[in-house]
Design a protein that fits this description.
The protein has four helices and two strands. It is mainly alpha-helical. A hairpin with a 2-residue loop joins strand 1 and strand 2.
Length: 101
């Protein structure tokens, strides 16, 4: 993670969300430079633009059959790696190479 002036990206995000203790927040305040303040200002403006109560409703899974939730590609998983496909296509070539030596 990038770190400028002793403030990591994670600490800046926690500061922005108000998750730091008073002692940690005061340390971040003391360590901030003009670039960090600019990033903080842009981040706050972005958070104001997208309110936290904007929740997207998800569909209910109550009436869905378990079989219909399987991915369509499930039968194709590991195709080419199972069964006879692991056997060499031309075993005769190997025996010819052995005879030449």
């Amino acid at each position: 993670m990038k770190q400028f002036n002793k403030i990591s990206d994670e600490e800046l995000a926690a500061y922005l969300e108000g998750m730091l203790s008073k002692q940690e927040a005061s340390r971040v305040d003391e360590s901030m430079d003009i670039d960090t303040l600019e990033v903080l200002s842009v981040s706050r403006k972005a958070l104001e633009q997208f309110p936290a109560d904007n929740v997207v409703p998800l569909p209910s899974w109550d009436h869905v059959e378990a079989a219909s939730t399987r991915p369509l590609y499930e039968p194709l998983a590991m195709a080419g790696f199972l069964g006879e496909s692991n056997v060499d296509d031309n075993p005769e070539e190997e025996s010819n190479d052995d005879n030449e030596q």
